[in-house]
Design goal:
- This protein has about 80 residues and is mainly α.
- The chain is built from two helices and two strands, in the order H-E-E-H.
- The relative contact order is 0.18.
């Protein structure tokens, strides 16, 4: 959103940002689930909106096995990544 820090965000703007953050967090949860990652491994995934309207997804800590699954899924098909 790129808002200045001196301009307060309206409740309506915050709600719009929160909805985007929730959607992004849910999308990540769904992708992890589709990879076969158990929910307990990514239970800390949560939406975040900063005071100036930036939207983030806090991933928290991923279990090592879950991180390997994500890394494998992100590699290009037929690639020879690390």
């Amino acid at each position: 959103m790129g808002r200045g820090t001196d301009v307060p965000m309206s409740l309506e703007q915050w709600r719009e940002c929160w909805a985007r953050a929730e959607g992004a967090a849910e999308g990540l949860r769904e992708a992890l689930s589709a990879l076969g990652v158990p929910q307990v491994a990514y239970g800390a995934v949560r939406p975040v909106v900063t005071h100036n309207g930036r939207v983030y997804v806090d991933v928290g800590m991923l279990r090592g096995d879950a991180a390997v699954m994500v890394a494998e899924a992100l590699k290009p098909a037929g690639g020879s990544g690390p």
